């Protein structure tokens, strides 16, 4: 397959960034199209970052954080999870397939898991082909609005927009 | 204009084996005029490399550093230190991790070079947007809040106060002393409990380093080890602590009589009261729930009776904020409900009062034999007669085979039961005493000897399962069917387990520590740190952690106090996070979303200004409020939106 996807991964400083370092130390290989951006916590990832990444040409975007219960800042990853669920809905409406946006928990010691997760992501996006990002044609008014509404929600109101399965999934993790 | 120095570290050959540094250097030089200097070094983190870097910064008066090499997790601190020493702000450094994220993980050198270029560009553009930050320091607070003024809390408070630490001792009851002062004598030497406690309690009242808050509870805790802000709710006593000396004139006239919980409801007290003679502080308190005046009714009797003008019905509940470096949780245990054990094991008893006449819990019996108790220490039944036969049931309610939550052994009740045996016999020489038990716990070096010293006249009945014991009413006596034996007794004493207070759940949430197994607070490590918790700066003392006897509680408390003394040194400075969040008050929409988002309770709402405010010493810079702010008015220092968005743009 010739298509080489561009993928941005937001990694939290404490777990996932360290896992990526571990993968490097092991000399494990992953495609050059995968680029990492460090944030202090997955909870820092503003939904607009994800939309911007797609807008700037990413074919896939991932947020990586500490496992539930392990966040360096207690609960940032739970916030990330809730925001991700809502964002997924917006992305659906923009025609961004589910596999293009992922949230994964990778701990500092899980270099192997890091490799597995990023390579899987890469393959999945490769199968989907280049992203035709509809928002670019809708941009900016509508999307901008959606984004704003997205972040205007409290965790509670986000939960309200989710269906039962999703709520259950969150509850389980929490 | 920025004077940027770009340094490419070969990292031995680790990077250059894959990434062509000549080409990368060329690329870097094409980036911008603001790059004043490009240099390579074979190992920039080495002593030689650091000196090289420091010299270059100074020679070229560099303002920013772009360091291409390894992971910031490895050497960001190293280079920040060099920068600081060379007068370059440590937050004006960008490290491009092309070792772990590019050279090591990319197969094809051409692709690696392209990726490295993108990474360098992204970091360079981000660097231009980075801002100098200053290092914040505070002096750690060496003082402590101790919650609970029972034997453990008192011990911890005194040890700290003796070392000149300020102690804020928070007690929910009107008086201190906890469960131990409810006992008459303590095993193994049958020492008088109040005599042992009294000097310590007295010192608590008089030590200038200790500030005692009675009728108080911890409501909120913010901050972290060395820097806690604790909100204490102090409920009104309605009696002046300085004017009253417990003369009892007010109790005599108070028209309200309620059960005295301090005596396990075996007798009554008034709505203004001191729970027992000698309680400390020896100051009356008004029971808010029952006082007629406080319920709005016409009554002024106590006020009129008090010759000292000590009644203060104008007092209000208050919230007090305290700063402390550590918190010791010494909230102890409480008594088990005897009806929970008895239900379904009884027949022939008409109602609870019929049961109470004959069947006592260990907690009740403790009060019955106490000189400060309802009968002034005389063992008497309800009708005033002196019981002649006793059945002491071990493991009643504890060691349960049915209920998981009650399966644990409290480890102190067996010895307490043998203590009762001795105390009964010292008062009623001819008493017939039976112990009905499943197993005995005799675990200290004194216990076996104590057990052996019990009169040979004692009857021991072993049963397989305490749950199967049955009690029925037989005239004035209780008939007890225990396994294959049946005995009769004038008085039954149930050795009930020590259980955690129901308030542990709320306190665990406030302190963010865990209720552990059986709902006693969870220690950090059961063997090597039994007085620590998973939250740094919060410690456990006494039965708050697990059932203990007085000796164990005291040593546990000493261990908690020792940790505070060793960890918090007066005058020591603590570095605070520089990467914090800031609110632009002009843009804040007052929605308060961030207030609930902050896991560190660092954000509150300023009602006057109608904006949310961040308490910088509490902010740790996670950035979750920044991502959640609907008006975009919060900035994460060093991880600002424009910095990250630039990185996204350039890396793609
Ligand atoms: S620090 Fe890793 S997710 Fe919060």
Description of the structure:
The complex is a heterodimer of chains A (174) and B (652). Chain A has 2 domains: 7-128, 3-Layer(aba) Sandwich (Rossmann fold); 141-173, no CATH class. Chain A is 51% helix and 13% strand. Chain A has 8 helices and 4 strands, in the order βαβαβαβααααα. In chain A, α1 (16-25) crosses α4, α3 runs antiparallel to α6 and α3 packs across α7. The longest helix of chain A is centred in the middle third of the chain and has 18 residues, at 76-93. Helix content of chain B is 28%, strand content 23%. The longest helix of chain B is centred in the N-terminal third of the chain and has 21 residues, at 109-129. Chain B starts with a strand and ends with a helix. At the A-B interface, α1, β2, α2, α3 and α6 of A face α3, α4, α5, α17 and α18 of B. The complex binds FE2/S2 (inorganic) cluster.
What keywords describe this structure?
A: 174 residues, Rossmann fold, 8 helices, 13% strand, B: alpha/beta, 5-stranded parallel sheet, elongated, binds FE2/S2 (inorganic) cluster
Number of strands of chain B: 35
Fraction of residues in helix of chain A: 40-55%
Q: What is the H/E string of chain A? A: EHEHEHEHHHHH
CA-to-CA gap between the ends of chain B?
27 Å
Q: Would you identify the CATH architecture of the largest domain in chain A?
A: 3-Layer(aba) Sandwich
- Seen as an oligomer or otherwise, the chain set is heterodimer
Please, what is the CATH homologous superfamily of the largest domain in chain A?
Lumazine/riboflavin synthase
């Amino acid at each position: 397959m010739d298509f080489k996807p561009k993928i941005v991964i937001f990694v939290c400083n404490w777990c996932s960034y360290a896992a990526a370092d571990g993968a490097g130390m092991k000399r494990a290989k992953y495609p050059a199209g995968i680029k990492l951006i460090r944030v202090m916590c997955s909870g820092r990832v503003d939904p607009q970052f994800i939309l911007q990444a797609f807008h700037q040409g990413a074919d896939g975007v991932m947020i990586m954080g500490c496992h539930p219960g392990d966040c360096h800042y207690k609960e940032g990853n739970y916030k990330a999870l809730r925001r991700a669920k809502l964002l997924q809905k917006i992305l659906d409406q923009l025609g961004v397939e589910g596999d293009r946006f992922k949230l994964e928990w990778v701990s500092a010691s899980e270099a192997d898991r890091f490799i597995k997760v990023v390579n899987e992501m890469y393959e999945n996006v490769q199968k989907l082909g280049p992203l035709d990002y509809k928002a670019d044609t809708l941009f900016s008014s509508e999307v901008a609005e959606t984004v704003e509404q997205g972040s205007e929600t409290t965790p509670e109101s986000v939960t309200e927009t989710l269906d039962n399965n999703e709520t259950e999934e969150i509850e389980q993790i929490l | 204009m920025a004077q940027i120095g770009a340094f490419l570290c070969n990292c031995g050959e680790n990077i250059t084996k894959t990434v062509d540094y000549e080409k990368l250097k060329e690329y870097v030089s094409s980036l911008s005029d603001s790059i004043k200097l490009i240099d390579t070094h074979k190992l920039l983190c080495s002593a030689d490399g650091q000196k090289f870097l420091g010299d270059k910064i100074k020679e070229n008066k560099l303002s920013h550093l772009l360091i291409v090499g390894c992971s910031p997790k490895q050497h960001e601190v190293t280079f920040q230190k060099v920068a600081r020493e060379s007068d370059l702000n440590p937050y004006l450094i960008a490290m491009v991790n092309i070792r772990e994220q590019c050279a090591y993980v990319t197969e094809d050198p051409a692709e690696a070079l392209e990726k490295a270029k993108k990474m360098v560009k992204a970091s360079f553009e981000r660097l231009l947007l980075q801002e100098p930050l200053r290092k914040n320091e505070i002096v750690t607070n060496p003082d402590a809040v101790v919650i609970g003024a029972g034997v453990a809390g008192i011990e911890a408070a005194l040890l700290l106060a003796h070392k000149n630490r300020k102690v804020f001792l928070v007690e929910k009851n009107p008086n201190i002393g906890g469960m131990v002062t409810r006992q008459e004598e303590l095993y193994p030497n049958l020492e008088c409990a109040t005599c042992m406690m009294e000097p310590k309690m007295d010192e608590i009242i008089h030590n200038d380093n200790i500030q005692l808050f009675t009728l108080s509870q911890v409501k909120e805790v913010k901050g972290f080890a060395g820097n806690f802000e604790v909100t204490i709710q102090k409920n009104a006593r309605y009696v002046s602590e300085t004017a009253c000396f417990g003369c009892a004139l007010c109790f005599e006239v108070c028209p309200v009589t309620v059960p005295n919980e301090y005596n396990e409801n075996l007798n009554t007290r008034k709505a203004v009261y001191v729970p027992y003679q000698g309680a400390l502080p020896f100051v009356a308190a008004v029971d808010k729930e029952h006082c007629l005046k406080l319920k709005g009714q016409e009554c002024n009797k106590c006020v009129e009776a008090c010759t000292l003008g000590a009644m203060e019905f104008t007092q209000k509940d208050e919230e007090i904020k305290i700063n402390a470096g550590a918190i010791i949780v010494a909230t102890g245990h409480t008594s088990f409900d005897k009806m929970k054990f008895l239900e379904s094991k009884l027949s022939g008893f008409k109602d609870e009062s019929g049961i109470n006449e004959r069947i006592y819990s260990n907690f009740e019996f403790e009060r019955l034999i106490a000189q400060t108790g309802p009968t002034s220490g005389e063992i008497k039944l309800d009708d005033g007669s002196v019981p002649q036969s006793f059945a002491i049931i071990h493991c009643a309610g504890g060691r349960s085979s049915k209920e998981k939550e009650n399966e644990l052994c409290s480890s102190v009740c067996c010895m307490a039961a043998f203590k009762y045996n001795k105390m009964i016999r010292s008062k009623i020489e001819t008493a017939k005493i039976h112990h009905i038990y499943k197993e005995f716990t005799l675990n200290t070096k004194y216990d076996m000897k104590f057990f052996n010293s019990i009169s040979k006249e004692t009857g021991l009945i072993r049963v397989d399962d305490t749950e199967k014991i049955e009690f029925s009413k037989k005239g004035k006596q209780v008939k007890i069917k225990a396994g294959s034996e049946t005995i009769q007794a004038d008085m039954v004493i149930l050795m009930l387990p020590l259980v955690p207070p129901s308030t542990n759940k709320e306190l665990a949430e406030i302190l963010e520590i865990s209720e552990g197994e059986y709902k006693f607070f969870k220690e950090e490590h059961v063997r090597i740190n039994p007085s620590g918790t998973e939250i740094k700066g919060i410690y456990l003392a006494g039965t708050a952690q697990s059932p203990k006897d007085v000796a164990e509680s005291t040593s546990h408390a000493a261990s908690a106090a020792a940790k505070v003394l060793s960890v918090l040194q007066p005058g020591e400075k603590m570095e605070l996070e520089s990467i914090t969040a800031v609110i632009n008050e002009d843009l804040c929409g007052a929605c308060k979303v961030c207030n609930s988002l902050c896991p560190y309770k660092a954000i509150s709402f300023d009602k006057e200004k109608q904006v949310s405010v961040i308490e910088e010493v509490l902010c740790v810079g996670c950035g979750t409020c920044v991502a959640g702010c609907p008006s975009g008015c919060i900035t994460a220092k060093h991880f600002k939106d424009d910095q990250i968005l630039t990185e996204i743009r350039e890396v793609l």
